[in-house]
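User: When convenient, might I ask for sequence and structure tokens for a protein?

AI:
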Amino acid sequence: MDASGRGHAAAGPASRGGFRTERAPDGRYRWQLKAPNGRVVAITPAAFETVGEAERGFDGLRAGAAELTARITHVRDGIGWIWVVPGSRSLPEVRSSRAYERYATCQNAFRRFVVLLTKQPAREFSARELPGREPPTGELPRRELPGRTASLRRTDGR
């Protein structure tokens, strides 16, 4: 993260792609995942108190990437489709960064997101990032995501 607290690139030599945390105007943190070409693929609507919390949230999602399912819905204001991975407290865990004109394109975008997510390296957490806790010795526990019963079917039944 730079001195202003804006942006933090996770592990990986590519500066254009990968996981990044960003500080929101309210002082909390959100993460995004970028493709190798630099385009933002997915964002998290949830806000985290610290960079470490955002990184642990991303790593938990990365660990369960193979079982993720998305709900594809039509955007409320405008034209297009977005994919959403349901989370807890009626907030999406992660969602597409933009709307797609076609339903099938949105489905493919979610599949590409899952592939990109599985290619992300696991984060190593230092004792400094985990205040009051011992650093983890192994792999992070797998986080269960509620609402995994959603499918990629269109909501209108077609």
Helices lie at 51-63, 103-118. Residues 1-6, 8-14, 126-151 have pLDDT under 50 and may be disordered. Residues 69 and 148 are 6 Å apart (CA to CA).
